[in-house]
Amino acid sequence: MPPSTHASARHDEATPDDGYGALLRDAYEAGPRRGSHLQVVERDDGYVGVEDAYRYFTRPDEWEPCERRAVAAARGRVLDIGCAAGRHLLALIGDHDAVGIDPSPGAVAVARDQGLDVRVGTVLEPGDVGTFDTLLLLGGNLGLLGSPGNAPAVLASLSRLARPGARILAVGHDPYAAATPEHRAYHDRNRECGRPAGQVRIRVRYKSWTSDWFDRLLLSPSELQEVVAGSDWKLAGHYYSGKVGFFLAELTFLGAET
Amino acid sequence: MPPSTHASARHDEATPDDGYGALLRDAYEAGPRRGSHLQVVERDDGYVGVEDAYRYFTRPDEWEPCERRAVAAARGRVLDIGCAAGRHLLALIGDHDAVGIDPSPGAVAVARDQGLDVRVGTVLEPGDVGTFDTLLLLGGNLGLLGSPGNAPAVLASLSRLARPGARILAVGHDPYAAATPEHRAYHDRNRECGRPAGQVRIRVRYKSWTSDWFDRLLLSPSELQEVVAGSDWKLAGHYYSGKVGFFLAELTFLGAET
Fold first, then answer.
1. Which of residues 43-62 of B touch A (CB under 8 A)?
2. pLDDT value of position A16
3. Which candidate among A240, B52, B119, B120 keeps its CA 20 to 30 Å from the CA of A18?
4. Minimum Cα–Cα distance from A208: chain B residue
5. Residue B8 within any structural domain of the chain
6. Hey, which residues 25-44 in chain B have their CB within 8 Å of chain A?
């Protein structure tokens, strides 16, 4: 939740290379409201979309039902991976030892300014954050699996963060649900290149900043089951809810106590 | 003003090359509301911005004060050049013989669906629309001057549309008012290339569609005065009002009766 004053937001922690952090900082300092700060998402086939930074400051009653369900289902020590400004952590900190990581120094600064324990880190290089009972991949972060080739390394990193009996709670987006003609054409193009239909190569732009290209892997639940096969993780269940195509996946840790 | 039903909007008049028309049609058919349909504006230095299609469906009380003033000052037969879906014409048709032109077949279809007399045409190729007492260049359309090299042809075309005593009422944007560091850097880059600071090369994107690159000429009132020198038009006055940098320019026709 945005505070009513922002005087202590730390400008100097957002580097010129961190346009995403600048976006969050700008939205935060202006007092988040719909439509005020927008980022452009450019797909490698030229398709463009726009995302409202307000989403990073929404309250639980504004979330997709499956995000609310994920946060409600968290237990024990919790890590929110790719936590942005910490909207999920704000709902967790009363009842949980909850930590967040995000690659953006600017995002981390805004999250800390909201009183959260958030550190710079990625799913592959999370830093020295310890181990957890619940690992959250919300706000599209199931897509951090990236590609079938990249997924085993991501799942192995998640194993190193997991306590015995740990669960991953991840919100995914089924690319085949309510796909528009433009999206179906992209799926076909991917299949022709031997890539999964839902492997989406994008970059994000804000004002003068453009991110590197990166891949997000959108999966149906059955595709997710295939991707995790052979890892320390098992798809225990999935729940569709809210906007068409969004689902909560629950993965349980099969790894032995270390 | 958006109508409450959109059943008769004509899909087939928006071509696949007319993404701008598709944007207007999509927003119109969904029932225009803020944030629902957005277009990306990409500058040739990589800077990106986002424009809300809702602006094309705003009511007079939502306009910049100088746009309201322009519409209120229109007299006689009126041509709205680059009229989009016709938001200004809707406020004019009760009291005026008012015609619009726009290069986008999709925009023209939406405007006609709202009961307006709008035809496909551009400032340089307006078609057989006759002559006018008032020529409107609203919604940033003073920028259609394009460049100092292009401006004489635009002004000559406007002369051919003008009756004796005609006026151009144009809303401009002074590029030096409240320029951000990114915009100032762009001005410097332009000057280094020998272009006016406010000559902005952009393209517009919506979903899978990307327009060609085109130039919009942002001018201060004194620069406008220089650009029209030697033409049939004289800058009679300008009025700053509303959002910083926006001004209404009134140009009077010096041409003899033909």
1. 45-50, 52
2. 63
3. B52
4. B47
5. no
6. 34-35, 38, 40
Tokens read off for A256? 């032995």
Q: Is A182 inside any structural domain?
A: yes
8 Å CB contact of B206 and A35: no
Residue B70 CB neighbours (<10 A): 25
Distance from CA of A149 to the nearest CA of B (A): 28
Say yes or no: ipTM exceeds 0.95.
Answer: no
Distance CA B56, CA B67 (A): 13
User: Which of B182, B208, B212 is most worth mutating to test chain A (most A CB atoms within 10 A of its CB)?
Assistant: B208
Among chain A residues, the shortest Cα distance to B186 is held by A208
Residue A191 lies in a domain: yes
> Per residue of chain B (258 residues), what is the pLDDT tens digit?
333 333 333 333 444 689 999 999 999 999 999 999 999 999 999 999 999 999 999 999 999 999 999 999 999 999 999 999 999 999 999 899 999 999 999 999 999 999 999 999 999 999 999 999 999 999 999 999 999 999 999 999 999 999 999 999 999 999 999 788 989 999 999 999 999 999 999 999 999 999 999 999 999 999 999 999 999 999 999 998 767 889 999 999 998 654
Cα A151 → chain centroid: 15
Average pLDDT over residues A198-205: 96
In a domain, B223, yes or no: yes
Contacts of A187 in chain B (CB under 8 A): none
Chain B residues with CB-CB distance to A45 below 8 A: 208
Q: Residue A247 is inside which H or E element, if any?
A: strand A246-253
Torsion of CA A15, A19, A25, A27, to 10 degrees: 170
Provide the domain count of chain B: 1
Cβ contact, residue pair A48, B206, below 8 Å:
yes
**Taking CA atoms, what residue in B is nearest to A186?**
B208
State the smallest CA–CA distance between residue B171 and chain A in angstroms. 24
Tokens linked to A119: 């550190």
Report the alpha-carbon distance of residue B96 to residue B233 in Å, rounded.
23
For residue A97, the number of C-alpha atoms closer than 13 Å in the C-beta half-sphere is 7
Higher pLDDT, A5 or B64: B64
Residues of the domain holding A188 = 62-199+216-253
Q: What is the CATH number of the domain that holds B105?
A: 3.40.50.150
